[in-house]
Amino acid sequence: MARKIIPDIIDHQDLAQLPGDCSIREAGRYMVEHGTGSVLVMKDGKLQGIFTERDALRIFVATRRNPDQTNVEDVMTGDPETISPDATPEEALERMTVGNFRHMPVVDDSGKVLGVLSQRDLMRPPAD
Predict the structure, then answer these.
(1) Helix or strand or coil: residue 54?
(2) Which domains does the chain possess?
(3) How confident is the model at residue 114 (pLDDT cuts 50, 70, 90)?
(4) Over 61-113, what HEC string results?
């Protein structure tokens, strides 16, 4: 069985990304339509933050903010922890576990976002 590496895990991903000024409702719809648990918040091609299912739940349930009048940039996790494509999947999983988050952007040395790792991706056995 081949060992998984991060570039293989994120290969062929379509980056789920939105501008920060979109509403939480728009982000939620996007996530449902694209079957993703997170969206990257981008500005001028640069990563500004990440908005996840957990963020949506926290906003809707705990704060009762109006999802049509609250922008993603107001509630996202800004400057999220990222990982290099050269890191190991084991390192990624350890960092997610310690940091208590399920999604982590993969960013190269130039700052370009290559994909997003999820804990689910890392737990899935490699394809034969």
Answers:
(1) helix
(2) 6-123 (3.10.580.10)
(3) very high
(4) HHHCCCCCCCEHHHCCEECCCCECCCCCHHHHHHHHHHHCCCEEEEECCCCCE
